[in-house]
Amino acid sequence: MPRSPRSRPSEVAGKPEKIPRPPNAWIIYRTDRLNEWKDTRGPNDPPVKQADISRMIGTRWRFEADHVKLEYEKRAAIAKAEHKRKYPNYKYNPISRRTTKL
């Protein structure tokens, strides 16, 4: 019996697609360093967990010069302005995943 094509949960429930948050300075920095790091890796290098990569890049971020961090803050501000233009009614509304104790 053929299977029906899968739909995304947002399509099934009729919910609008989730709007991503604008990237902050750290996220932009991490993306740049990750792409740099990937370019230095060979095809036979063992895989590395994203948590380990973030830890390594996070250490670099903490010791970066202020002028480098300022450049990423500027890029984040540009990304935030573009996000605001693209999604004018966007409001960050985090959903708590914690369960309450009874």
Automatic annotation (TrEMBL):
Residues 19-91 form the HMG box domain. The keyword Ion transport does not apply. Keywords: DNA-binding, Nucleus, Transcription. GO terms for cellular component: nucleus. InterPro entries: HMG_box_dom, HMG_box_dom_sf, SRY-related_HMG-box_TF-like. Residues 19-91 bind DNA. Residues 1-23 are annotated as: Disordered. GO terms for biological process: cell differentiation. This is HMG-box. The lineage of its organism: Eukaryota, Fungi, Dikarya, Basidiomycota, Agaricomycotina.
